[in-house]
Amino acid sequence: MNKKLILLLILISTPLFSQYKGKKFSIGFNLYYTTTSKIFLYPNSSDEILRNKSNDIDKFFDFGLEFRYRFSEDIILTISSEYIKTMQDGINITGFVGGTTVSINAEDGFEIVPLELSIFYVLPVSTEEFKFLMGGGGGVYFGNHLRKVGAVEVNNFSREIGYGIHVALSLQYLVTENFSAQLGMKFRDPDFRVTSQYTSPTVQINGSTVLFPQDKFDSRINVDGVTFTLGAYYDF
User: Fold this and answer.
1) pLDDT, tens digit, for every residue of 41-67?
2) Which of 23, 104, 154, 233 could form a Cys-Cys staple with 196, CB 3.0–4.6 A?
3) How far is 193 from 198, CA to CA, in rounded Å?
4) What is the model's pLDDT at position 20?
5) What is the pLDDT of residues 129-167, one digit of tens each?
6) Do residues 169 and 218 make contact, with C-beta atoms less than 8 angstroms apart?
7) DSSP class per residue in 3-57
8) Which of 94, 108, 97 is nearest to 196 (CA)?
9) For residue 124, what is the DSSP state?
């Protein structure tokens, strides 16, 4: 019984996949789809309700590049970067006309450039054509808050660099000796704060001059959704 158990453990822990035929490097193009994100409008408020008030931007696409180095047959190191930009219409911003408070329509959004380092393990259940990868790592995130109200936009007066960790699962299909396709899923939670400034203290809306309540404002951007990936890679 013990011999059978030992044999079973050896079979499970032994890589069942074929060699990568000596290829150490890969470069790939990925399309990303993220489910949810939030822009917190009053991140410094002492009121918990206001502090947690957010504009939610869901279901957006972005793209990026990834470079891979196969440290060994079952360990892969990667560095990747993306460009994320998304905006949503229908956000209500408070303004003043004379002494009256009014609600005006705006577009709200953000742009982020993630730079992530990861390490992946090729699971033993992989086959000659299908590679199952599991891994994770850390990243830094450079971003801006985007907003447009009529003809007025915002400039970022100051910004934080976001930091975070991530975990990922993916399935790689070796189409030919040099080309592969990949489906994946990534869990991450980049979060950073931005101080923005309107390009003008007022905006013309329907013939009225609307005064913004403040020249500068703080916001907090959090991309907390699941990210799905579809990629194509060249192995060399």
Assistant:
1) 999 999 999 999 999 999 999 999 999
2) 154
3) 17
4) 55
5) 999 999 999 999 999 999 999 999 999 989 999 999 999
6) no
7) HHHHHHHHHHHS--SPP-TT--EEEEEEEEEE---EEES-TT-SSHHHHT-EEE-
8) 108
9) T
Which regions of the chain are under pLDDT 50?
A: 5-18
The identity of residue 132, as a single letter, is F
Ramachandran region, residue 90 (left: φ > 0; alpha: ψ -120 to 50; beta: rest): left
Residue whose pair of structure tokens reads 């911003």 in the numeric block = 93
The tally of CA atoms less than 13 A away on the side-chain side of residue 94 is 8
Name the residue ranges covered by the structural domains of the chain.
2-235
Q: Which amino acid is at 159?
A: R
pLDDT value of position 21? 63
CATH number of the structural domain 2-235: 2.40.160.20
φ, ψ dihedrals at 168, nearest 5°: -150, 150
Q: pTM for this structure?
A: 0.86
Residues with Cβ within 8 Å of residue 182, at least 6 apart in sequence = 28, 30, 170, 171, 172, 173, 229, 230, 231, 232, 233
What pLDDT was estimated at residue 11? 44
30: its two tokens: 């990925």
What does 77-102 look like in DSSP terms, one character per residue?
Answer: EEEEEEEEEEEEEEEEEEEEETTEEE
Compute CA 17 distance to the chain's CA centroid, rounded to the nearest angstrom: 31
CA–CA separation, 73 and 71 (whole Å): 7
Amino acid symbol at 202: T
